[in-house]
Design goal:
single chain, about 280 residues, alpha/beta, Rossmann fold, Pantoate--beta-alanine Ligase, Chain: A,domain 2, 2 domains, three-stranded antiparallel β-sheet, about 40% helix, about 20% strand, globular
Length: about 280
């Protein structure tokens, strides 16, 4: 039977609930989100429940990770639906702060990231992004003091950045990455998929199919240089404006020349219509 989660919208309420959990020696998992929850998010919640006694989900659309030309104002906000879904999953706590709680007047501190944050992938096209992500996630970790935090692998560079930050700053949080949840045709689930027209939605799975084909060729021994350019051309011919299609070291995200250079991750970002999609798979 589902039950309504506790909803905290200010720091005293958040701390009061977390102190109750801690007094009972209960472990806490955090799932950071920006709302507009879909099955991918709920998979993170279920993994959190599997690992910890208590599950907290944050819902905060973070303005500092959006550039002025991006979709902060139009980003989908579906509070009532989100609350119902989290109640069905028996989430214990929802942390839903306002912008003034997270960034009060006079706020003047930022977390600056290097390493996997500056590897010429998402950072090339969204140079503001990882500073905003690192700062808000760092604050969420400090506010919620979770034992673990669960993130999806779809935002793979973000996962590597957050993992590095938690380790470097000794935040005491074990960052867990969970495999991307996909639609039946392979499209990675994303809150932004609602922006796709019917025609664009039919084309969108080309990204995943192309990555799968490249991974198959690489495992069969084909050299990287022989497969990346044709794959990029296939994506462009399907109707995408391609930002990148890259093979990188799965941990450092540094460029590689062959599969012998370490564990390999294929990463892609492309826009179709007005919607920018990202995806990745391991090789």
């Amino acid at each position: 039977m589902s039950r309504d989660p506790i909803v905290a919208r200010n720091l005293p309420a958040l701390r009061e609930t977390l102190n109750i959990f801690r007094a009972a020696s209960e472990t806490v998992a955090l799932v950071p989100t920006m709302g507009a929850l879909h099955e991918g998010h709920l998979g993170l919640v279920r993994e959190a429940r599997r690992r910890c006694k208590r599950v907290a989900v944050s819902i905060f659309v973070n303005p500092t990770q959006f550039a002025p030309h991006e979709d902060f104002d139009s980003y989908p906000r579906t509070w009532d639906t989100d609350l119902a879904k989290l109640a069905e999953e028996n989430v214990d706590l929802i942390w839903n702060p306002g912008v003034k709680i997270m960034y009060p007047d006079g706020f003047a501190s930022r977390i600056t990231t290097e390493g996997p944050a500056i590897v010429d992938l998402e950072d090339r096209f969204r140079p503001h992004f990882f500073g905003g992500v690192a700062t808000v996630v760092g604050k969420l970790f400090i506010q919620c003091r979770p034992d673990i935090a669960v993130f999806g692998e779809k935002d793979y560079q973000q996962l590597r950045v957050v993992t590095q930050m938690a380790r470097d700053l000794d935040l005491g949080v074990d960052v867990v990455g969970l495999a991307t949840v996909r639609e039946s045709d392979g499209l990675a689930m994303s809150s932004r998929n609602v922006y796709l027209s019917r025609e664009e939605r039919a084309i969108a799975p080309v990204l995943h199919r192309t990555m799968q084909d490249v991974a198959t060729q690489l495992r069969a021994g084909t050299e990287l240089a022989m497969v990346l350019a044709p794959a990029a051309a296939r994506i462009t011919e399907a109707g995408f404006a391609l930002d990148y299609f890259e093979a990188r070291h799965a941990e450092t995200l540094q460029p590689i020349k062959s599969l012998q250079d370490g564990p390999v991750r294929l990463l892609v970002a492309a826009k179709i219509g007005t919607t920018r999609l990202i995806d990745n798979i391991g090789v």
